[in-house]
């Protein structure tokens, strides 16, 4: 584990995808997207509706066919290959799990043991430890169907961190949370990337969050239109073309992301 007081990414450890392209019914819905996601960094995917953000996630999770390459390499070069991915979905159909407790839910997700068998003490301790990574250990005996939106997201986050992934992916993870829950969840993500040196990739429509917490912002509209520090992306001409009239506080004036100059063609990119 690195001991960096300023949480600088190690640089050599990263997940990368190269020339990722997804075609549906003969049309490219995602075209030639390449990115490096360094350990210890949080990258936010932004873009208009229908831009391919969820398609990108499905490709990374190998839920749909894609062309291109997805690889992981650690800093020592001892492990190279596919990244271990933890995924937090936008919603959980909790009503189907209404009678189940968080403990039952975790056991069913992590083991092949039937949920009606009583948990062994060691198993409960392991699940408590996993929940504590997301600040959710006090929820272990609560019914899943009775959890608030923020509590559900913390449980899903704990599950995504078991085992600890190389890349943590979150799909708009804060629906149904109040302002206090939002701040706590974002702070938890901030701590996780520092403590465990993992890459975090999330889809977000909350530009103020992206500006405050993300290390990089990736603006997608079928193609990667801009990629870099959020202040630069928000201040760039491409962002203003895709999101006309949207102002993001504290965006640096007159700076452009280093891929702003790419030619792009997307339905949402007209000024």
Walkthrough of the structure:
With 271 residues, the chain is α/β, with parallel strands linked by helices. The protein contains eight helices and ten strands. The protein has helices spanning 53-60, 102-110, 121-132, 149-160, 179-196, 207-213, 230-235, 237-242, and strands spanning 14-24, 27-38, 42-46, 67-73, 80-81, 85-88, 167-171, 199-203, 216-221, 223-228. Strands 6-7-8-3-9-10 form a six-stranded mixed sheet, sandwiched between helices. Strands 2-1-4-5 form a four-stranded antiparallel sheet, with helices on one face. The longest helix is centred in the last third of the chain and has 18 residues, at 179-196. It is globular and about 55 Å long. The model is unreliable at 1-11 and 251-271 (pLDDT under 50).
Using the CA coordinates, give the radius of gyration.
19 Å
- The quaternary state of the protein chains shown equals single chain
Query: What's the overall geometry?
Result: globular
- Number of H- or I-type helical stretches: 8
Distance between the termini: 46 Å
Q: Biggest sheet, in brief?
A: 6 strands, mixed
The low-confidence parts are: 1-11, 251-271
**Percent in helix:** 25-40%
């Amino acid at each position: 584990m690195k001991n960096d007081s300023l949480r600088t990414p190690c640089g050599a450890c990263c997940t990368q995808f190269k020339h990722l392209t997804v075609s549906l019914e003969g049309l490219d819905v995602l075209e030639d997207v390449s990115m490096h996601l360094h350990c210890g960094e949080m990258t936010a995917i932004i873009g208009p509706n229908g831009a391919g953000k969820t398609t990108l996630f499905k490709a990374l999770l190998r839920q749909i066919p894609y062309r291109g390459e997805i690889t992981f390499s650690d800093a020592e070069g001892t492990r190279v290959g596919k990244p271990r991915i933890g995924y937090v979905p936008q919603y959980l159909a909790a009503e189907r799990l209404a009678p189940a407790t968080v403990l039952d839910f975790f056991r069913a997700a992590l083991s092949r043991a039937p949920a009606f068998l009583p948990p062994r003490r060691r198993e409960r301790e392991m699940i408590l430890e996993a929940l504590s990574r997301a600040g959710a250990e006090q929820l272990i005996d609560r019914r899943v169907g009775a959890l608030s939106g923020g509590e559900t997201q913390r449980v899903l986050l704990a599950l995504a961190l078991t085992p600890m992934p190389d890349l943590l992916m979150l799909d708009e993870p804060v629906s149904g949370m109040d302002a206090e829950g939002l701040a706590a969840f974002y702070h938890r993500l901030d701590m996780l990337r520092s403590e465990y040196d993992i890459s975090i990739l999330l889809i977000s429509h909350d530009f103020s969050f992206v500006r405050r917490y993300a290390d990089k912002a990736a603006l997608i509209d079928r193609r990667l239109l801009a990629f870099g520090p959020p202040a630069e992306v928000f201040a760039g001409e491409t962002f203003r073309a895709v999101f006309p009239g949207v102002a993001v506080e504290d965006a640096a004036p007159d700076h452009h992301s280093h891929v702003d100059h790419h030619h792009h063609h997307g339905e949402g990119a007209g000024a």
